[in-house]
Amino acid sequence: MSDLTELYQSVILDHNRKPRNHGAPERFDATADGRNTLCGDALTVWVALDGDTLADVRFVGEGCAISKASASLMTQAVKGKSRAEADALFERFHALVTGREAPPAEGVRGPLGPLAALAGVSRFPIRVKCASLAWHTLQAALHREPGAPVTTE
Amino acid sequence: MSSSASLHSGATPALIAPLAAPLPLAPRDAFPLLAADPALRYLDSAATAQKPRAVLDALRHYYETANANPHRGAYRLSVAATDAYHDARARVARFVGLRDADCLLFVRGTTEAMNLVAGSWGQAHVGPGDEVVVTRMDHHATFVTWQQLAHARGAAFRIAELTPDGRVDLDHLASLLGPRTKVVAFPHVSNALGTVNPVREIAALVRERSDAIVVVDGAQGVPHLPVEFDRLGADFYAFSGHKVGGPMGSGALLGRRALLEAMPPWQFGGDMIAFVGDEVTTWNALPHKFEAGTPNVGDAVGLAAACDFLAGLGMDAVIAHERALVAAAMERLGAIEGVRVHGPAADQRSGVVSFSMADVHPHDLATILDERGVCIRAGHHCAQPLMRSLGVPATARASFWVYSDAADVEALAEGLESARRLFAA
Ligand SMILES: Cc1ncc(COP(=O)(O)O)c(C=O)c1O
């Protein structure tokens, strides 16, 4: 596979075309807006909590295929996780897209599950921000004082 | 605000003739960076231009033969530096049609020039109840600078809107002008759309209806069009050296003498003073009053070399070359499924083609093109107010200059076709 077809593999294109958990929820407990000031990408993430569990995570946003697909995959990956588990997942995800952690071998389901589809980003350092925007925004929603702005800078 | 691809949808790709080749106006060999990488398709010259060898040679020659702190003239080398600086000013002024070369201030670029006008003239003359006018197509360097000056001075900030094909709506602009208008600022050429504005016509309109100063952002003017400041009708005109093939960190502000002489200094320090008393200081003459501190002589010399280089090509030839490429690109890109080209007809632009592809974000296009060695810009082009009115968060932009040719257009089009295929998969 070329770097490009690895980056834009079918899972990514599918989530870009049909983002999951897309649209504002009726009920939520935490939210944040994220913005990539360089390119104008912007998204909003909402979280509904059940105790410490992320019962539902939704988003809307404007951005490239990588940022949209990453947001969509993230909402699926963190649903049902605790805050600490979601944080740990972000750590591993960040290691994957920055090339610090090798992707699982072809056909093997690694600890990141479907998020591994974004491994191709590690060959395109300028796109790491696109892949991490939704995650930074989720972190902000979960951990930050309400109202403070989020950027990937 | 788009010449839709549907204009061309009747044409079958097979019927589109191969591009009648615009060859480079200046050979790639004259640009060391391009010569070193024949496969590179550099289509981001509106962001910054590649440098002619003549400019790099001039920089080296200055530093190897004449470098000293100018205006300190106690020894011959310092005189050589002073002469080099003076000579650079004269050559740049001649290139942009300014007879009174002392009214050319060397600055760091367009951004600094705009801040100088706002910080000096604006602070002194704009007050509560006054009005400051910019356009929907202004770069943040102009837009934000005047927006903030207006806020700081309690003045109203007004935005002239655009026509559907991306030109300044002169009727709307006229309706904003009145006795309280103090400043009208607009770009000679839009960096995001390539639209060439009728500077003389706009300046005349402003004079007719107000006493405002006319401030032109020429960042995309000087590199692409013949500019004759003395006949433009503008009060101030700013440009950046790096977009003209000169060094980064060089640039100039041109102004009318009467205004510059009446304006307070903007920065303080060495060179800009005449007499420094314990309480009171008097200012040096133009241009020094506005050039505090040790000047950037080396880059001024480099900028002058860039102007000489362009004068050698002829600016009429430069704009004709760019328009031929833009016309070819608009036709070739317009025939690609889903591509929409923004902005006016080719004969009303400089060498800029801003476009969108349905269902593919400009960033993804830029990455896919980059893999083929094609460099384009993707984003808001420092013109977020314009993007909002286009109804897009970002566009992709290809921009041409003297070294661009038909092969660049073809590489761009083929890259876009491959993006189309990849995303259709
Ligand atoms: C129209 C326009 N105005 C202003 C600027 C700012 O120029 P600089 O960043 O060189 O100061 C640019 C360049 O990006 C431009 O294209």
Which SSEs are present, and which pair or pack?
The complex is a heterodimer of chains A (153) and B (425).
Chain A: H1 3-7, H2 10-17, E1 30-36, E2 41-50, E3 53-62, H3 65-78, H4 83-97, H5 128-143, E4 150-151
Parallel strand pairs in A: 1-4
Antiparallel strand pairs in A: 1-2, 2-3
Helix pairs in contact in A: 2-3, 3-5, 4-5
Chain B: E1 2-3, H1 32-35, E2 41-42, H2 53-65, H3 76-95, E3 104-106, H4 110-125, E4 131-135, H5 140-153, E5 156-160, H6 170-176, E6 181-187, H7 199-209, E7 213-217, E8 236-240, E9 251-255, H8 257-262, E10 273-276, E11 281-283, H9 297-313, H10 315-334, E12 339-342, E13 352-357, H11 362-370, E14 374-375, E15 377-379, H12 384-390, E16 395-399, H13 406-424
Parallel strand pairs in B: 2-14, 4-5, 4-6, 6-7, 7-8
Antiparallel strand pairs in B: 1-12, 3-9, 8-9, 10-11, 12-13, 13-16, 15-16
The structure holds pyridoxal-5'-phosphate.
Pyridoxal-5'-phosphate (PLP) is lined by residues 109-111, 139, 141, 187, 191, 217, 219-220, 240, 382 of chain B.
Q: Indicate the CATH architecture of the largest domain in chain B.
A: 3-Layer(aba) Sandwich
How would the global form of chain B be characterised?
globular
The helix/strand series of chain A, from N terminus to C terminus, equals HHEEEHHHE
What topology, given as strand order, has the largest sheet of chain B? 3-9-8-7-6-4-5
Name the CATH class of the largest domain in chain B: Alpha Beta
**Beta-strand percentage range of chain B:** 15-25%
